[in-house]
Amino acid sequence: MSTRNGVWQALDERLKLSDFTYPVPRHANTVAYSLGGISLIGFIVLIVSGILLAQYYDPVPQLANDSVRAITQGVHFARILRGIHYWAAQVVMLTVLLHMFRSFITGSFKKPREANWIIGVGLLAVTVGLFFTGTVLKWDQEGFEALEHNIAIGHLLGGLGHWFTPAFTEHVPLLVRLYIAHINILPGILLLLLAGHFWLIKKHGISARPGQPVGEMLPFTAHLKHLGKYALVFVGIVLILAVLRPPAVGPAPVEGIEVTKPPWPFLSLFAVENWIGISGLFWASAVLFILLLLVPFVDRSPHAVWRRRPVFIALGVLLLVVLAGLGLLAWLTPGAVHVGG
Amino acid sequence: MKRHLRWVAAGILAAGLVGLAAGGALAHKGKLPEDALTLVRQASALLAQNPGMTGEVRERLQAALKSKKPAGVHLDQVAEALRVLDKKDVGTARRLLMAAIMPAGMPMPPEGPRGTAPKAAATPPSAAPLPSPPPAGASGQPPVVQLSVEVAMKMAEPLQARFTGSKAENAILASGLALVGLGLFLLGRTRRAMQP
Questions:
Q1: Quick one: which of A186, A142, A177, A141 has its CA closest to A46?
Q2: What is the ipTM of this complex?
Q3: Record: contact B52-A276, CB cut-off 8 A
């Protein structure tokens, strides 16, 4: 027995690593079926870079913008670190959305995977929450206006939204509480949901490609090894972007004006807000998430192939086109006053 | 039954889409603040963020000139900024507004390159106001005040870090390119191995 095998056996005996060699279909290694894994790689990058950034960030409102500016120009390598965190967040937002869209198109939410789709919608909500709170933390005009929207929606929800308003406590500023949500509450919920997501994937197996036999199986460790290759590409792209296109930070905010537009994931909601006002922001988000939650309960046919689900595929694509159109509209139209002003 | 469910889903989605598009109400617009200092700070920040929003800026400057709480603002500078703004000289308007909310006796901020002025000082809502000017005859105080103004001016500038081509940046860039190359090479090799 070689030394390598001996070490493996010793570790396996104690840690049961061979439990990770359960079979997964070969198509799990394709880009489309690896989007969830790529998102996980992104979350790991975000957690590591976020822990390092937290050593330099000060969430006290009077100092927050200054500390981000210090990170951007003063602290050695922190600028690159912030770039990594920023670009990893952009890529994760994109891969999470693509992962969800792929699961919809391939019918991966169908029986018996309905619960996992719902957990996935929860993960999307947490990802959006992390993206939103991250935008607020830089505490420039964009971040401040995002916070004003947060407060306005908190007031709109009455008692349910009390946590989202400064009135919740006089002693801890809302920015500090959102920082705690960003680094503590939301990542905690994310990890719990991810645990449930992975557990159900292991129980039900990775969904088959619609209309195709399962085919050859691989050990899960081979899938992990393959994800490692995607991780190299992910980290490489994020490093390149962090160096060549470091994120900017605006001046310290001024209260009572509304002059910025939100980041790209929220642009379509901004268009709705332009029409309806602040309540539109809440209702549009609520409608979107309710529609997503309803998917496995209304598209109940056993067919996963998209050609045999024309109504739902058409509705899903229509929704996507509408959101993209609204986003484009918001991008092209000038900013508007929704809160304060 | 399944057919009905499909129509229910279609109805919900359609209702959602119509709901999104059905709004006609204009976005809410709140009252302007009463004190001139806040109004001028807002106007400065608006000009710094989006020089195209001159309508909102004028509205605030006019309100500042009529304000019953003009403390901390040189209204003559505000009036001049308003006149300059009518001539679409945003740079000078910013500079004048900056000077208008500076403590008395402070020098005008220097003009930037090509005649453009530094961006307006924008103070975070919860930050302490700029320190008051020193009392007449007090010595040794002005440098402290000047430092605060400089800090405020610096904070009012958007900060866009750029690629400088330093050794460290080049090393990180090379590492990134190497990782992407290695990753794509390994993925390609696996893909070729998977093909029959």
A1: A186
A2: 0.88
A3: no
